[in-house]
Amino acid sequence: MIWIWTKEAMRTRDNRLVAEAMEHGAIGFVHVVPKKWTMRDVYEMKIAIAWREKMKTYNIPVVFVSHIPKESEVWAYGHQIERPKLVEWTQIVTGAGKPYQKFTPFYKKAKMYPFQVEEASVTWRKQEKVEIPWSEVDVQWPRWSKTVTLPLYREEDVLTYLETIDLSRYAEARDEIENEAVTRLSPYLSTGLVTSRTILAFGLKEEAFVRQLLWREFAHMTAWAQPHVTERPLYEKFQTFPWRDDEVQFTRWCRGETGYPIVDAAMRELWQTGYMHNRLRMITASFLTKHLRIDWRKGMKYFMETLVDADEASNALNWQWVAGVGVDSSPYFRIFNPLEQGKKYAASGTYIRTWCPKVQDVHREQNDAIVMHDEARKHALSHYEQWKQNNSNDSHII
Ligand SMILES: Cc1cc2nc3c(=O)[nH]c(=O)nc-3n(C[C@H](O)[C@H](O)[C@H](O)COP(=O)(O)OP(=O)(O)OC[C@H]3O[C@@H](n4cnc5c(N)ncnc54)[C@H](O)[C@@H]3O)c2cc1C
């Protein structure tokens, strides 16, 4: 009997882990019920409940447990079987045989190879009832979870959704916040309800879109090659960078009370829905790390707790990129003007007013803004210059 960890394994298509486990006989799943919940935990729990219903038909148990003891032999993606990929990472390497640290050469090389295609789909069969060696726990939902609307939580529904996706505007409009052209597939990819390979099998192959799927792959490859990506800057010189510690400003950022309408709208949407458009993730992350000069790791952690698509690798790489501390980053001295970004990508104000209905002028900082853009920008730059000078014997600093 093989027990499988539900993490990224609750689907029928492109699921070698489960298909292979079934070759050995009966299977069962264990799903860990968290004590402290993130938004993604709540979503995964909902997926697991639907999965349990589906598995009942085949007498396949899905047990809700408090933890998986280290010594127990539970199969999991990333352990017995690699996660499904589009390209073989060990093939996409530099001339010196090292993993790429920059996305563009990774992307160019990746495109030289045919993408991997879907592997075995699971053929479900009814099995004999099995004894359950786990003690089951009750699900104590956090109170806030009752009011959130979650994305689709059944694979069948996600596959139906894939058939409806239209990428004709994607390349030109993927940055637009109001007239959205993005796919919102990230929760399904993060939880493993669907794989990138299945998405391609549905004919979703528009180049700008595939490029984004490869960004995800690049993030995962980086986390595999450099597991410290979630803890310290890939651009190691930034380890000495003096971030500010300011709990009051950090809390105002989290709550969407910075006084910058585009930032506040995005942070409130995140809190209430677990979703934020990519452009807004960049604007809010830039605001935290440049205008407030607060450590990118604090923002990264907050996103991990609140995003419904929270993905360690993508989140960490993107935070490093925005903060300017990664190898392939937009440099620290490039500072977004949130008001200009708002005018460009959320011009009509509809989006901002949805989340900040009291704001009069949607493209102006409010009277109670926590910092003034010009001043904050100057401070960030002089701070950066000073740090650079203190490390001036170090030729690697940009
Ligand atoms: C600070 C910051 C934090 C982020 N944290 C996460 C995270 O925790 N989880 C996550 O899945 N994405 C993260 N992203 C990447 C990106 O914002 C989301 O993947 C995207 O907004 C999801 O919306 P979508 O599915 O409509 O994207 P689409 O534009 O439709 O893209 C299709 C898919 O490509 C992948 N993708 C797109 N952009 C990126 C990117 N920049 N990096 C990696 N993969 C990408 C996603 O899987 C996405 O579902 C983060 C970006 C930033 C700037």
TrEMBL record:
Cofactor: how and how many bound: Binds 1 FAD per subunit.
GO biological process, one term: nucleobase-containing compound metabolic process
Residues binding FAD, per UniProt: Y170, F209, D309, A310, D311
Swiss-Prot/TrEMBL keywords: Chromophore, FAD, Flavoprotein
Site label Electron transfer via tryptophanyl radical, positions: W243, W296, W319
KW Repressor (keyword) present: no
GO MF term set: deoxyribodipyrimidine photo-lyase activity; DNA binding; FAD binding
UniProt cofactor(s): FAD
Family membership: Belongs to the DNA photolyase family.
Record's protein name: FAD-binding domain-containing protein
Domain called Cryptochrome/DNA photolyase FAD-binding: residue spans: 209-371
Coiled coil: none
InterPro entries for this protein: Crypto/Photolyase_FAD-like_sf, Crypto/Photolyase_N_sf, Cryptochr/Photolyase_FAD-bd, Cryptochrome/DNA_photolyase_1, DNA_photolyase_1_CS_C
Species of provenance: Savagea serpentis
